[in-house]
Amino acid sequence: MKRRNFLVRSSLFSAGTVLLPSFSFASETSQRFGVQLYSFRDEMAKNPLGTLEQIASIGIKEIESAKSSKGHYYGLSPKSMKQACEDLGLKLVSGHVHLDSDFDRTMEEAAASGQDYLICSSMPSDGQTIENYKKVAEEFNKAGEACQKMGIKFGYHNHEYEFESDQGKVLYDVLMDHTDPALVHMELDLGWVVVAGKDPLDYFKKYPGRFPLWHLKDMNMTEKESTEFGKGGLDIQAMMNHQEASGVKHILIEQEEYASTPLESMKHNMDFLNNL
């Protein structure tokens, strides 16, 4: 190789070694984080559009709605909610609902809103037994099939009580073992898992790829209530390091108790994530 060509190629290689790490870092830090709107429940009830604007202003890109006294969309129609999100650069990815007699209407609303998931927010069970959890699993499979026909994905959000045991078997595991992964998509609330004395990483290993949604929630382990990131018992860094194993696609922050206001707490949480 002639000396001049060698020097040119060497310069290009050196430039590449400087630029590539910056490009890599930019890709890693562009992750989209969302929020469960129950975190802003009072504010959404009073002023949904203004609250959504505040949420978007701190860098949140995705939202999950929750059933309220004004319906699933805080007094807005499903189409109005969709438009408001589009105007603010937000994506309505999911909604917490009940599996009840109005579920057909709930599915129709979800389809109109453009959201991807409907998440049952609490256990419709008659008791903490293996038999009852098997019955619920069957109900979830049927709900998942109905949602699938409408282009929506059905799922379930846990609390801590699902990790109680009956006859030596953890009830959440019964639910996992008897639901069809193609029909029932789990939203794992990481905070409630650790409050129940379990490790989310164990569930990522036991049921790889089964958790397309997370509730990222730090927990005060003494009071058993949510707190700002870094102040509780959840190892958030470890969770973020094992996203691939869990199959997560949407990381939704939820906080129900606050040091000051929901907005200030959420700013803290976003800063915490951006500094990991």
From TrEMBL:
Keywords: Isomerase, Signal
Signal peptide: 1-26
Keyword Cytoplasm: no
UniProt cross-references to Pfam families, sorted A to Z: AP_endonuc_2 (PF01261)
One GO MF term attached to the UniProt entry: isomerase activity
InterPro entries (alphabetical): IolE/XylAMocC-like (IPR050312), Xyl_isomerase-like_sf (IPR036237), Xyl_isomerase-like_TIM-brl (IPR013022)
Residue span(s) of domain Xylose isomerase-like TIM barrel: 53-275
Top-level taxon in the UniProt lineage: Bacteria
UniProt cross-references to SUPFAM superfamilies, sorted A to Z: Xylose isomerase-like
Keyword Isomerase: yes
Matches recorded under PANTHER family: HYDROXYPYRUVATE ISOMERASE, INOSOSE DEHYDRATASE
Protein name: Sugar phosphate isomerase/epimerase
Native source species: Maribacter litopenaei
